[in-house]
User: Fold this.
Amino acid sequence: MPSRSLPRQIVAFAVVGVVNTATYYGLYLLFLIWLPYLAAHTLAFTLSMTGSFFLNARFTYRTRPTWRKFLLFPLTNVTNFLITTAGVYVIADILHAGHRFAPLLASAAAIPVTFVVSRRVMLPGARPATTGDRGTQTATAGDSAEVRGTADAA
Assistant:
Protein backbone atom coordinates (compact mmCIF):
# COMPACT_ATOMS: atom_id res chain seq x y z
CA MET A 1 0.00 0.00 0.00
CA PRO A 2 1.62 3.32 -1.02
CA SER A 3 1.81 6.08 1.53
CA ARG A 4 -0.78 8.83 1.38
CA SER A 5 -0.31 11.91 -0.75
CA LEU A 6 0.59 15.10 1.08
CA PRO A 7 -2.96 16.56 0.87
CA ARG A 8 -4.40 13.34 2.32
CA GLN A 9 -1.76 13.36 5.06
CA ILE A 10 -2.76 16.90 5.96
CA VAL A 11 -6.46 15.94 6.12
CA ALA A 12 -5.70 12.81 8.19
CA PHE A 13 -3.44 14.88 10.46
CA ALA A 14 -6.27 17.35 10.96
CA VAL A 15 -8.77 14.59 11.82
CA VAL A 16 -6.32 12.99 14.25
CA GLY A 17 -5.71 16.47 15.64
CA VAL A 18 -9.43 16.96 16.31
CA VAL A 19 -9.61 13.59 18.10
CA ASN A 20 -6.41 14.39 19.99
CA THR A 21 -7.64 17.85 20.96
CA ALA A 22 -10.95 16.48 22.22
CA THR A 23 -9.09 13.83 24.23
CA TYR A 24 -6.69 16.43 25.59
CA TYR A 25 -9.45 18.86 26.51
CA GLY A 26 -11.56 16.19 28.20
CA LEU A 27 -8.57 15.05 30.23
CA TYR A 28 -7.65 18.67 31.00
CA LEU A 29 -11.13 19.38 32.39
CA LEU A 30 -11.08 16.13 34.36
CA PHE A 31 -7.65 16.85 35.87
CA LEU A 32 -8.72 20.42 36.76
CA ILE A 33 -10.88 18.86 39.46
CA TRP A 34 -7.76 17.82 41.38
CA LEU A 35 -4.85 19.78 39.92
CA PRO A 36 -3.82 23.38 39.22
CA TYR A 37 -4.38 24.32 35.56
CA LEU A 38 -0.72 24.09 34.46
CA ALA A 39 -0.35 20.61 36.00
CA ALA A 40 -3.66 19.56 34.41
CA HIS A 41 -2.42 20.90 31.07
CA THR A 42 0.92 19.07 31.32
CA LEU A 43 -0.60 15.71 32.26
CA ALA A 44 -3.40 15.91 29.68
CA PHE A 45 -0.91 16.96 27.01
CA THR A 46 1.42 14.04 27.76
CA LEU A 47 -1.35 11.44 27.66
CA SER A 48 -2.96 12.80 24.51
CA MET A 49 0.42 13.04 22.78
CA THR A 50 0.94 9.31 23.30
CA GLY A 51 -2.39 8.59 21.66
CA SER A 52 -1.56 11.03 18.88
CA PHE A 53 1.62 9.12 18.07
CA PHE A 54 -0.24 5.87 17.47
CA LEU A 55 -3.12 7.48 15.57
CA ASN A 56 -0.73 9.41 13.32
CA ALA A 57 1.43 6.35 12.68
CA ARG A 58 -1.61 4.32 11.61
CA PHE A 59 -3.91 6.80 9.90
CA THR A 60 -1.85 9.83 8.84
CA TYR A 61 1.50 8.45 7.74
CA ARG A 62 0.64 4.74 7.40
CA THR A 63 3.92 3.76 8.91
CA ARG A 64 4.90 1.16 11.45
CA PRO A 65 5.30 2.61 14.94
CA THR A 66 8.80 1.92 16.21
CA TRP A 67 10.50 2.63 19.50
CA ARG A 68 12.77 5.11 17.75
CA LYS A 69 9.83 7.06 16.34
CA PHE A 70 7.96 6.80 19.64
CA LEU A 71 10.94 8.24 21.52
CA LEU A 72 11.44 11.00 18.94
CA PHE A 73 7.76 11.90 18.60
CA PRO A 74 7.59 13.83 21.89
CA LEU A 75 10.49 15.93 20.67
CA THR A 76 8.38 16.95 17.69
CA ASN A 77 5.83 18.31 20.11
CA VAL A 78 8.26 20.40 22.14
CA THR A 79 7.41 23.42 20.00
CA ASN A 80 3.72 22.60 20.28
CA PHE A 81 4.02 22.25 24.05
CA LEU A 82 5.94 25.51 24.43
CA ILE A 83 3.51 27.44 22.22
CA THR A 84 0.41 26.03 23.92
CA THR A 85 1.83 26.38 27.43
CA ALA A 86 2.88 29.98 26.81
CA GLY A 87 -0.51 30.63 25.25
CA VAL A 88 -2.37 29.10 28.19
CA TYR A 89 -0.33 31.21 30.58
CA VAL A 90 -0.81 34.43 28.59
CA ILE A 91 -4.54 33.89 28.15
CA ALA A 92 -5.18 32.78 31.75
CA ASP A 93 -2.73 34.88 33.79
CA ILE A 94 -1.93 37.95 31.72
CA LEU A 95 -5.17 38.50 29.80
CA HIS A 96 -7.33 37.04 32.62
CA ALA A 97 -9.57 35.50 29.97
CA GLY A 98 -10.07 32.29 31.95
CA HIS A 99 -8.32 28.97 31.93
CA ARG A 100 -11.13 26.74 30.65
CA PHE A 101 -10.82 27.68 26.97
CA ALA A 102 -7.22 28.88 26.98
CA PRO A 103 -5.75 25.57 25.72
CA LEU A 104 -8.10 25.47 22.73
CA LEU A 105 -7.13 28.97 21.66
CA ALA A 106 -3.42 28.47 22.30
CA SER A 107 -3.18 25.22 20.35
CA ALA A 108 -4.22 26.74 17.01
CA ALA A 109 -0.88 28.49 16.49
CA ALA A 110 1.10 25.27 16.98
CA ILE A 111 -0.70 23.03 14.47
CA PRO A 112 1.28 23.79 11.27
CA VAL A 113 4.65 23.48 12.99
CA THR A 114 3.65 20.19 14.61
CA PHE A 115 2.62 18.70 11.24
CA VAL A 116 5.92 19.55 9.57
CA VAL A 117 8.06 18.24 12.41
CA SER A 118 5.98 15.09 13.03
CA ARG A 119 6.13 14.21 9.33
CA ARG A 120 9.93 14.36 9.48
CA VAL A 121 9.97 11.98 12.46
CA MET A 122 7.34 9.56 11.17
CA LEU A 123 8.70 9.39 7.62
CA PRO A 124 12.47 9.69 8.08
CA GLY A 125 14.35 10.10 4.83
CA ALA A 126 11.26 11.09 2.87
CA ARG A 127 11.88 13.66 0.23
CA PRO A 128 9.64 16.70 0.29
CA ALA A 129 6.26 15.47 -0.93
CA THR A 130 5.22 16.18 -4.46
CA THR A 131 2.06 15.20 -6.19
CA GLY A 132 2.06 13.48 -9.53
CA ASP A 133 -0.75 12.87 -11.97
CA ARG A 134 -2.40 10.37 -9.63
CA GLY A 135 -1.64 12.28 -6.41
CA THR A 136 0.80 9.73 -5.03
CA GLN A 137 3.56 10.85 -2.76
CA THR A 138 7.16 10.69 -3.88
CA ALA A 139 9.12 8.82 -1.23
CA THR A 140 12.45 7.10 -0.86
CA ALA A 141 12.85 3.36 -1.31
CA GLY A 142 13.19 2.95 2.46
CA ASP A 143 9.84 4.61 3.02
CA SER A 144 8.15 2.36 0.47
CA ALA A 145 9.60 -0.75 2.11
CA GLU A 146 8.43 0.42 5.52
CA VAL A 147 4.93 1.16 4.23
CA ARG A 148 4.79 -2.28 2.54
CA GLY A 149 5.83 -3.84 5.85
CA THR A 150 3.04 -1.94 7.56
CA ALA A 151 0.47 -3.11 5.04
CA ASP A 152 1.63 -6.70 5.49
CA ALA A 153 1.38 -6.40 9.27
CA ALA A 154 -2.05 -4.74 9.23
